[in-house]
Amino acid sequence: MTGRLNSAQPYALGLFRIVVGLLFASHGATSLFGILGGADGQGGTVAAGTWPGWYAAVIQLVGGTLVLLGLGTRVAAFVASGSMAYAYFKVHQPEALWPLENGGELAAFFCWALFLLVFTGSGALGLDQLFSKRQAASADRTVTNKATVTA
97: which DSSP letter? Predict the structure, then answer.
């Protein structure tokens, strides 16, 4: 049983990354474009350039999209995780200690979920994997060609 689960781990991680990225990007799109109820629940948007809301929304949209695609996953997840740590400690935590009391459950969850992706990478089904395979194949061809030329 453990062997089967271990062999499926990259795919489960890839699906986890896709879901987290989609949900995170959705929050940014909601704030920037007013879709899915908008920032105020009535289709409103965050004013461009306002601190910290607009910048957080841009990080959510861009970072979430990159995580969703599995492109630069570790860097995107690191920046996004940091933005959620900032959101929790500067916006939510001053209201009360516990996330359930201060409304910071999503910020805490996204912070830790994205932080996990910093260490695990994109898993299967990501563009990172596609590019690393292409790069490895190209490097193998280069080494083979150099070996042939010197022989």
Answer: S
Reply yes or no on whether the pLDDT at 145 is more than 70: no
Q: How many of the other CB atoms lie within 10 Å of CB of 18?
A: 18
φ, ψ for residue 44, nearest 5 deg: -80, 160
Tokens at 138, concatenated = 């190209």
H/E stretch holding 48 reads none
pLDDT per residue over 18-57, tens digit each? 999 999 999 999 999 988 888 778 888 888 888 888 999 9
Q: What is the pTM of this model?
A: 0.84
> Strand, coil or helix: what is 38?
strand
32-40 contacts, C-beta under 8 A, 24 or more apart = 32/57, 32/58, 32/61
The Cα–Cα gap between 98 and 23 comes to 23
Q: Closest Cα partner for 39 from 53, 21, 52?
A: 53
Q: How far is CA 7 from CA 4, 36, 105, 116, in A?
A: 5, 37, 32, 19
